Amino acid sequence: EADIYQTPRYLVIGTGKKITLECSQTMGHDKMYWYQQDPGMELHLIHYSYGVNSTEKGDLSSESTVSRIRTEHFPLTLESARPSHTSQYLCASSGEGEPPLHFGNGTRLTVT
Amino acid sequence: ILNVEQSPQSLHVQEGDSTNFTCSFPSSNFYALHWYRWETAKSPEALFVMTLNGDEKKKGRISATLNTKEGYSYLYIKGSQPEDSATYLCALSGSARQLTFGSGTQLTVLP
Q1: Distance in angstroms (rounded) separating the CA atoms of residues B58 and B73
Q2: How far is A98 from chain B (nearest CA, A)?
Q3: What is the pLDDT of residues A24-46, one digit of tens each?
């Protein structure tokens, strides 16, 4: 049973469109993360948040933005999608200390 | 950015065989080492989090060891089964407490 939910699972969209990838968790975790993965490549951290109204950029530069208005919700937005944004986006959350990450099922984004 | 390397990149084994993979990482700035299993069409699932040099953890037929001084961790699967087929990811938590992932080892267990 999933405790962290991502929607949509798949998205095909044209260049220039604004999109928002949704991520919600029901575990009350303060820490949430967005990872990007290109085929055959590593997961790269693009955004993270340690609590409400706290967001930081990760190791990999990304044109996307995030917000954290509520503990359970961490949406990612692309204002103007481009083919270079085609990738898989994974959301994750974790509790205090050094616990493992809980991942969502991911969103596979294709920008045509 | 920390460099986490996994080998082999992919591996095919017969059902019943035992196998192991390697995760190498810089030994400085080490805080914790994570292992995840990622099955196709599912989300990555945590297997182990290890923090101490010499740590050994076990979960059923899967076990892992950690050597922080030389910067490596091994993941072992005893008696592989087709349901073990997945990509196995390791990730390093360094001083910044962010996870840096390796590119994974893709395991296929043939019946």
Answers
A1: 13
A2: 8
A3: 999 999 999 999 999 888 899 99
CA distance A75 to chain B (A): 18
User: Residue A98: which H helix or E strand, with range?
Assistant: none
Contacts of B98 in chain A (CB under 8 A): 45, 48, 58-59
Listed range (A1-5, B82-86, B98-102) with the worst mean pLDDT: A1-5
Rounded Cα distance, B56 and B53, in Å: 9
If one counts every other C-beta atom within 10 angstroms of the C-beta of residue B19, the result is 19
Q: ∠B68-A91-A32 over CA atoms, to 5°?
A: 70
Q: Give the number of other Cβ atoms within 10 Å of residue B101's Cβ.
A: 22
Question: Best mutation site among B9, B25, B43, B106 for testing chain A: the one with the most A CBs within 10 Å?
Answer: B43
Q: How far apart are CA B93 and CA B70, in angstroms?
A: 16
DSSP A15-77: TT--EEEEEEESS--SEEEEEEE-TTS--EEEEEEEETTEEEE-SS--S-EE--SBTTB--EE
The model's pLDDT over B37-79, given as tens digits with 9 standing for 90+, comes to: 999 889 999 999 999 999 999 999 999 999 999 999 999 999 9
Asked if B43 and A101 come within 8 Å (Cβ–Cβ), the reply is no
Q: Which residues in chain A are contacts of B30 at CB distance < 8 A?
A: none
Q: State the pLDDT at residue A84.
A: 93
Average pLDDT, chain A: 93
